[in-house]
Amino acid sequence: MFKPGDRVRAKNIHPATHTRLPRYVRGHLGTVERDHGCHVFPDSAAHGGGDDPQWLYTVVFDGAELWGPDGDPTVTVSVDAFEPYLEPA
Q1: Domain range for residue 57?
Q2: For residue 81, is it within any domain?
Q3: Backbone angles phi, psi at 38, to 5 degrees
Q4: Whole-angstrom Cα distance, residue 60 to residue 74?
């Protein structure tokens, strides 16, 4: 379980089935901003695998981290990401 302020990396996953992890954050570093508690994991529920509750977090990514040195350094992107999508940085 992560807590606000923790640095995390979005896993670079490419499942053949449903996922709610945007491709543009995969493999990138971010910071947990908020813990939303446990929720139904859509990756499991969408394919008849049951609710499979997982922790859900808001993770903030810097624009330069996502788009490189040409990215606007003042831009941040917030993504709600389930724990199975994240790993400690």
Answers
A1: 7-88
A2: yes
A3: -85, 140
A4: 13
In a domain, 1, yes or no: no
Determine the pLDDT at residue 70.
Answer: 87
Q: How many domains does the chain have?
A: 1
* Per-residue pLDDT at 87 exceeds 80: yes
Model confidence pLDDT, tens digit, residues 17-61: 878 999 999 999 999 999 999 999 998 887 788 899 999 999 999
Antiparallel, parallel or unpaired: β 7-10 and 54-62: unpaired
* C-alpha 28, offset from chain centre: 9
pTM, full prediction: 0.92
Position 59 in a domain: yes
Asked if residue 83 is part of any domain, the answer here is yes
